[in-house]
Design the sequence.
């Protein structure tokens, strides 16, 4: 079937639980996996699925995100129906307010939906790590004759407080929607798991416009899909859950379990990055049939220098990005961003290192997230003494050390006068 599809990507979240990584950027702009940003996953999924008409709704601390979209996500060509356009909050509500919830974000961009008149609207979040062929979800949506379809997957019941939890019948129709309730019902026959919403929705156009319009007029609403709109639709609209576990990516071996992670906390973010550098990663970044797209830079290749006893540049079970130089230092089980310099005799283990970090001679660092532009002096020890680390850095309950970075300089053109 031929459908006109408009995608709205909700990319305005603060990501407060990821602080300090979100002190200068929105959560979707947080670096991930060395050379990527979190938003690259949803945008790659949409583009790889053949969805080329995309608005990215932004709000909080959006400059880093805007620069990334400029560098990596501008379409070239003359086709007006192919675009990725960032849409800042424009205070289009009657009270001229910022977005007060996910439904309000859509309502304040009512005009974008009316002007394009799509058959369906794909409404996805921008802060999860996963791959998904969205066409399969759209096909399911239309086969079921649904007004709304929500992608869902099982998660442990202890996480029910963090998700919308869905109850379904044997046909996949949604019977109840519980937003972030610790005591939400578990899955039939599996008391340890709940069926969680992934925050990815498909709506029929007219239904979506009607829903957000009525919600905007309700002074008691918090204007959120999970809290207000979806629970009310259960008995009035055909609403179905799409089983994400059935989604298959071209080029992946059959029978694998699809990977999806909510990286809303520092520890979850760290663990998901560590998943990427595993020997057999649960999410394969090397599948050429489903590329993870991002900004492209003219970085030189990574370089390993020196071959002496105790002074050998090497990386084991790690991901390195362009421009990295391991000048006699050792990196183990780590993810390095662009232009990281590891000096002689340094040891970096189980770390995430952002761009432009310089790690001095004889440093010993383990279980740390090091933000952009950090300069670590020679002989620094991090990750071996939690009490000492807390005096200088943020340390999570699990002992993960987070080192805040510096703003990147912005080069300006010169004018001769």
Sequence:
């Amino acid at each position: 079937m031929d459908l006109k599809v408009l995608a709205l990507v909700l990319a305005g979240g603060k990501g407060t639980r990821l602080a300090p990584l979100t002190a200068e950027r929105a959560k979707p702009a947080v670096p991930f996996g060395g050379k990527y940003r979190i938003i690259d996953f949803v945008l790659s999924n949409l583009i790889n699925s053949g969805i080329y008409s995309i608005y990215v709704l932004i709000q909080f601390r959006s400059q880093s995100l805007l620069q990334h979209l400029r560098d990596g996500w501008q379409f070239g060509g003359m086709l007006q129906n192919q675009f990725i356009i960032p849409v800042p909050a424009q205070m289009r509500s009657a009270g001229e307010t910022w977005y007060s919830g996910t439904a309000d974000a859509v309502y304040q961009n009512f005009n974008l939906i009316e002007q394009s008149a799509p058959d369906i609207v794909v409404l996805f979040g921008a802060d999860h790590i996963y791959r998904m062929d969205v066409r399969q979800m759209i096909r399911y949506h239309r086969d079921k004759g649904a007004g709304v379809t929500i992608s869902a997957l099982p998660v442990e019941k202890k996480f029910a407080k963090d998700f919308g939890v869905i109850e379904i019948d044997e046909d996949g129709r949604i019977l109840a929607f519980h937003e972030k309730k610790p005591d939400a019902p578990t899955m039939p026959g599996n008391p340890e798991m709940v069926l969680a919403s992934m925050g990815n929705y498909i709506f029929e156009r007219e239904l979506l416009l009607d829903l957000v319009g009525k919600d905007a007029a309700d002074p008691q609403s918090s204007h959120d899909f999970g809290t207000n709109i979806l629970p009310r639709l259960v008995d009035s609209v055909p609403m179905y859950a799409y089983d994400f576990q059935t989604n298959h990516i071209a080029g992946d071996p059959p029978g694998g379990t699809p990977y999806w992670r909510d990286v809303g906390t520092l520890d979850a973010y760290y663990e998901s990055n560590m998943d990427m550098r595993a020997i057999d990663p649960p999410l394969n970044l090397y599948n050429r049939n489903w590329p993870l797209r991002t900004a492209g830079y003219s970085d030189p290749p990574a370089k390993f220098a020196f071959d002496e006893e105790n002074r050998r540049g090497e990386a084991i079970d790690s991901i390195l990005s362009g421009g990295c130089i391991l000048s006699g230092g050792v990196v183990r089980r780590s993810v390095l961003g662009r232009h990281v310099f590891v000096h002689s005799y340094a040891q970096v283990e189980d770390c995430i290192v952002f761009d432009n970090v310089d790690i001095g001679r004889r440093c010993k660092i383990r279980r740390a997230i090091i933000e952009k532009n950090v300069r670590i002096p020679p002989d620094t020890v991090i990750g071996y003494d939690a009490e000492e680390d807390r005096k200088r850095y943020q340390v999570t309950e699990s002992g993960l050390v987070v080192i805040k970075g510096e703003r990147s300089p912005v080069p300006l053109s010169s004018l001769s006068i």
